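Ticket #4471: structure export looks truncated?
Reporter: QA, pipeline team
Priority: medium

Steps to reproduce: submit the single chain below to the structure queue and open the exported record.
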Amino acid sequence: MKILISNDDGIFALGIRTLANTIVSQGHQVIVVAPDRERSATGHGLTLHQPIRAQKIEGVFHPEVTVWSCSGTPSDCVKLGLNAISKEQPDFVLSGINHGSNLGTDILYSGTVSAAMEGSIDGITSIAFSLASFTSVEFQPAANFAVKLINQLTQNPLPEATLLNVNIPPVAETDIKGVKITRQGIRRYTENFQKRTDPRGKSYYWLAGELVEELEQPEHIYLPPDLPTDVQAIKENYITMTPLQYNLTDVVTVQKLKDSGIEN
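Actual output as written to the record:
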């Protein structure tokens, strides 16, 4: 299989190296196109007002992995990989393994999820992988699960190209309880802007938001009430897998607006 991999932690991050090296060791063709530096929380941003520069990198990954460093955002990287670097459409687009979780409302800001979403927009089944810890560097269990998952999806393909957001608990592989299909939960932060002064006496602000609560999403009108949220399941040491879509239309409010008579 041909697999394109990107991330938002940067080309030299341990997570993407572990993922790419593990995938290529299974005999798959792997191309990595990733930012030349950390680009976390860039969302689905694109570089439109300056050139995107890319260069080949050697000696960092497994020798069978083709590696490109890109000056752009995670979404830029996947676009570049699909339309300029890769000669054939890949079977999967993978993103990660991110250092830190992407749960609940965090996915709206996540460069990791956005990179994977770029693949799904192009009609390719895409998966974002995140290790749910900023301190653990044990990425191998997540990489092993990635191999298992793409093998399962190859043997039993989904009817349509899909975006999956996968979070792996930061515990020993033997302590992972299993896999849960989940729905998106809610995470809330205090938005703390620290005012500072630079050496020239000019003020600037540093965003230092802190997580204050993790809420379970209210029951979903279209999903069974016993379907856990990603926030809930990761706490119980399950790998969480949440199918996502880029279509943000609120179908319930569409009908309410139609019933309100606002249309002429």
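Status: closed, not a bug. The export was complete when the record was re-opened. Leaving a note from the reviewer for reference: The CA atoms of residues 47 and 149 lie 32 Å apart.
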